[in-house]
Amino acid sequence: MRQLISLCLLLVVFLTSCSTTTVYIVRHAEKVDETDSTDLSVAGQQRAVALADTLASRGIDSIFTTPYRRTRQTAEPLAGRLGLRIATYPSAPASAIMNRVGRIRNKTLLVVGHSNTILDVAKGLGTRPTLPKIESGDFDNLFVVRIRRGPFSKSVDLSEKTYGQPTRP
Q1: What InterPro entries would the database entry show (predicted)?
Q2: Mean pLDDT per 10-residue interval, the chain, length 169 residues
């Protein structure tokens, strides 16, 4: 009987150590301009809706943004559609969100950051993005990081996509 209980406990530990976490990482959508970098432009608002359209059926459990209005505005259409609260993380250091995401298991997350942080977040989660940097006019990058954990291993995969319509200057 003790062997059966031990075997069942071992099986439970084995099964609970397996998980897949999916992290969608985006930069905030288009801002009005450099004189008003706090709000999204009309194009940015449309891109935020496009993000919601893209991710609404992906099983998002949690949404994280920096404390800036433009990141929050980028996530609000999706949060509203899914009935989720937006959690805030500090924009620096990038390790703050990487550590937080690293502790999450079996969830699907959206992380909204900035041109100078989203590649660092993707790299910090164990990937190698092909882009060397996010240009000032790039707002359509969608990085999908899948973290698979097994009892004896961990693998991380990255898909680099785009979403929404290209903006016109």
Answers
A1: His_Pase_superF_clade-1, His_PPase_superfam
A2: 59 66 97 79 96 97 96 98 97 89 93 95 95 93 96 93 75
DSSP result, 70-91: HHHHHHHHHHHHHT-PEEE--S
Q: Which amino acid is at 101?
A: V
Contact 74, 29 (CB under 8 A): yes
As given in the structure block, the two tokens for residue 51 are: 């993000």
Architecture of domain 18-162: 3-Layer(aba) Sandwich (3.40)
117 token code pair: 């942080």
Contact status, residue 51 vs residue 26, Cβ threshold 8 Å: yes
Taking the model in full, what pTM does it have?
A: 0.88
Q: Which two tokens mark 50?
A: 């496009």
The full length of the chain comes to 169
Please state, in angstroms and rounded to a whole number, the distance separating the CA atoms of residues 96 and 9. Answer: 34
C-beta of residue 93 within 8 angstroms of C-beta of residue 69: no
Phi-psi region of 126 (alpha: psi -120 to 50; beta: other; left: phi over 0): left
